[in-house]
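Annex B.
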Amino acid sequence: MAAYDSLRDLERMANTFFDTARRGPRQMPMDLYRDGDHYVLTADLPGIDPGSVDVDIDGQLLTIRAERTLSAGDGVTWITRERTSGTFLRQLSLGQGLDTEKISASYRNGVLSVTIPVSEKAKPRKVEIATGDDAPALQVSESQN
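Hsp20/alpha crystallin family protein: predicted structure tokens.
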């Protein structure tokens, strides 16, 4: 038999109150890194139905949205409920130099991976240096003082 703990009971009620007051979209933890000529974004979405995950591009704005629903039968009395349900949302402003037409995404084992390629124009390139007879003549004009 467990002893009654009024502080734990008060904490549970406060958490329940504040969690139900927070009805807006929830954040999802994510990592973002560059690997060669593309960026990779990974976001944790455990327990999310893959059919509820949306990745949208609007101009330079990347939006990730997912929905988690927790099912419970009629007459269920929750003892504890720490897994959140609802809408998860993340928006990122993409900078210039990214190929938004070739963004791809996959969802495996509760992790969403979004690959964002760098555009050809933004990739570093080597500039060839002309030498000898092939080099254009450089003209210097004298300024008058």
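The CA atoms of residues 54 and 65 lie 5 Å apart. Helices lie at 6-21. Further annotation is deferred to the next reporting cycle.
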